[in-house]
Structure formats: structure tokens, C-alpha cells
Amino acid sequence: MNSSRRLVAIHPSAPAKPALGAPCNGCGLCCLAEPCPLGMLASRSRQGACRALEWQAEAARYRCGLLRAPAAHLLGLKAKAPHAVDALLRPLARRWIAAGIGCDADIEAQPAKAPEA
Question: Its domain of life (predicted)?
Fold first, then answer.
């Protein structure tokens, strides 16, 4: 098997990955493949899916939890109510994850092959 290929589990209702540079549509593929630098802090790992990635069933898309509740993901604070520190961390999170810049995931998604019987 080619070492540059990896298998990531993605929600079946997630939208298809947009073209490189196109606006983010919440496909989640980038964060499922590996965490961004800020996601590495939240995940406490350099590999695998970002722990801050959240599935939004009502919108059928993924969203970065570091934008919704940065204190919960970075500092381990309870996410039941917004924290004052969220207002300070959210703008930094937007910048560090390059929110609004467009898709920067230079990866190709292919459906997994069904196992042979």
C-alpha cells in the first residue's frame, strides 16, 4: 500500500471536500487527517484526527470546536456556558486556524473500497 495514503473515518452525511482555495464547507477532511498547530495543542497530539473537531448534525457539517468553545478545548474548562476567556481566545483561534481563508487541504478524498467477501 502506498505510504502517502491514509484512511480516515468521516461522517457519511459530510459534504464533499471543496476545491483547494474554495470556501470551507465543513467537510472536516483536513482536521480528520491531522490537527492544525492549534489543534495539536487541543488534541495533545501531532497525528490523527483533531479532538476539537465537532460534528453538527443539524447542519450536516463539521465545525472547529476551537471557534465555538476554545476554553473548553484548550484549557479543559466545562463547556456548559461561555467563559470570559472564550472572548479572548476566539479571535486568536480564528487567526491560527486561518478561518475564512479557504480550503488549504491539499489532499484528495476517495471512498473506501468495500471489503471483499
Answer: Bacteria
